[in-house]
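Exercise 7. Given the encoded structure of a 345-residue chain, write a plausible sequence.
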């Protein structure tokens, strides 16, 4: 039987303290070599079990195998020099020291297919895997070779497509591309960002998603949100093109955000992963608060296309808070499922 309102998380979940420093984004590994590989697999088992305990329908690896959602992929590419670093401004918001593109970029060997196979062996549930989107990748690098954002995005899109096909073969049901940059560079998104994303999903038979958020709950992002005013209409400029695109699912931030719900009208027909859990707050949502957000979303998304989720990744949160938020998500969805069953009977 088809699950209505299937739950999922956006991607990352907290790492255990024996693997990496807790409550820290992008914290370095505590182990190395074979011990690290084993520890990552153990962490993946734990994070999967926690999702199952919380009755999450579409599960993930919680990004236990990744230090950073972009660089952990980029470090496997030819043509990028991690020694040659430059400080650049990320999404016009904060400075970071990033690697440089120094030659033609290419991918010799799949980055994540072994991890996907490992996750696939552990569960029969649908699995989702996250990759960085082409536009967000170029925003996390200094380009000393192509000198064209559009061309570099296109090269990355071809590489992502190659990787995505490997992940599909390894048993992934949904591949999600993280594109927080879509909420910043609006003209470029419409000019070539969505085209690059479509190049990345070309020929895939599994489902595809794009995650567009207002970022992790770090200070640079929460400060930025304060400047956005009472109504966040960023999605409005890119939704019409996304609606026409071949991407299946769009993952958005709604809980405690000032995004007007009615903007979802602009992507009518797409499946929407609606963020009903705030990742920038340690307050645990009540199931009723989750249900309320999703109930509102149902005015703009058909019930068979609504996928309850989190606003963004939960990696920086304390483990017990992330765990409680997973439970709040599924309990909130259960309230709504009951209401829908009553309406139908
Ligand atoms: Zn996000």
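Solution.
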């Amino acid at each position: 039987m088809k699950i209505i309102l299937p739950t999922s998380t956006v991607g990352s979940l907290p790492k255990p303290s024996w693997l990496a420093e807790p409550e820290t984004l992008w914290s370095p590994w505590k182990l190395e070599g074979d011990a690290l590989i084993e520890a990552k697999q153990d962490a993946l088992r734990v994070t999967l079990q926690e999702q199952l305990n919380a009755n999450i329908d579409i599960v993930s690896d919680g990004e236990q195998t990744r230090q950073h959602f972009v660089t952990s992929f980029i470090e496997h590419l030819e043509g990028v020099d991690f020694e040659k670093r430059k400080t650049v401004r990320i999404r016009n918001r904060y400075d970071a020291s990033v690697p440089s593109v120094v030659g033609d970029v290419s991918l010799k060997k799949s980055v994540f297919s072994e991890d996907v196979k490992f996750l696939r062996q552990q569960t029969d549930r649908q699995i989702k895997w996250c990759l960085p989107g082409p536009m967000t990748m170029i925003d996390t690098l200094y380009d000393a070779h192509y000198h064209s954002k559009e061309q570099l995005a296109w090269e990355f899109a071809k590489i992502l497509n190659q990787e995505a096909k490997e992940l599909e073969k390894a048993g992934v049901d949904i591949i999600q591309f993280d594109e927080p940059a879509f909420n910043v560079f609006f003209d470029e998104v419409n000019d070539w960002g969505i085209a690059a994303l479509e190049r990345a999903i070309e020929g895939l038979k599994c489902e595809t998603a794009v995650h567009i958020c207002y970022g992790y709950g770090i200070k640079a992002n929460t400060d930025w949100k304060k400047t956005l005013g009472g109504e966040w209409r960023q999605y409005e400029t890119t939704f019409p093109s996304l609606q026409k695109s071949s991407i299946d699912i769009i993952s958005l931030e709604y809980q405690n955000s000032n995004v007007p719900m009615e903007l979802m009208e602009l992507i009518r027909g797409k499946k929407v992963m609606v963020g009903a859990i705030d990742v920038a707050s340690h307050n645990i949502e009540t199931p009723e608060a989750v249900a309320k957000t999703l109930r509102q979303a149902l005015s703009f998304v058909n019930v068979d296309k609504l996928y309850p989720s989190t606003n963004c990744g939960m990696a920086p949160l304390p483990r017990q808070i992330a765990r409680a938020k997973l439970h709040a998500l599924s309990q909130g969805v259960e309230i709504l499922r009951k209401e829908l069953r009553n309406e139908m009977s």
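Remark. The pocket of zinc ion is lined by residues 10, 180, 211, 213, 312-313 (CB under 6 Å). Students should compare their own answers with the one above.
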